[in-house]
Amino acid sequence: MPVVAEDTRVRSLGEQGLQAVLDGVTDGLVLLDEAAIRLADADAVEAIAELLSRRIDLTADRVMRAIEAPSEAALAVICRAAGLNVNGFSAILRMRRRHLPGDASPAEVLAAFLETPLGTARQVVSMLRLHDIVELPE
User: Are the C-beta atoms of residues 114 and 90 closer than 8 Å to each other?
Assistant: First the structure.
């Protein structure tokens, strides 16, 4: 089940607006957390996946799977590795919870996010990246 159905929030920002936010981050004109908050408030899940994937060199599809996963743990690690602060992650968590239930309280998820060292999150993402490029035997 996709996280976001057709919604007026995405339409209100529009495709050009979504691209402007992503380009603003790339060009250094928009802070990462500000972009995450804008996109999450617009329920722009695919744009958030693109934003995060650019920061951590994972595919947008891999990030989408983390957003849509039953547990929010992978999403928290990806957001931490991407360099989001608590406000940006909180906005993404709220967006996700508008559509999917969580497996823990928001306070617990935010606490786990804050307790995860940046280096550890980046190592986990590196392992995910390696898993994506190495064919594992069945």
Answer: no
**pTM score:** 0.84
Which helix or strand (DSSP H or E) is residue 85 part of?
Answer: none
Domains of the chain, residue spans = 8-132
pLDDT tens digits, one per residue of 43-90: 999 999 999 999 999 999 999 999 999 999 999 999 999 999 999 999
| Nearest residue to 90 (alpha-carbon basis) of 35, 21, 40, 24 | 40
Dist. CA 127–CA 137, nearest whole Å: 16
**Rounded to whole angstroms, how far apart are CA atoms 50 and 13?**
16
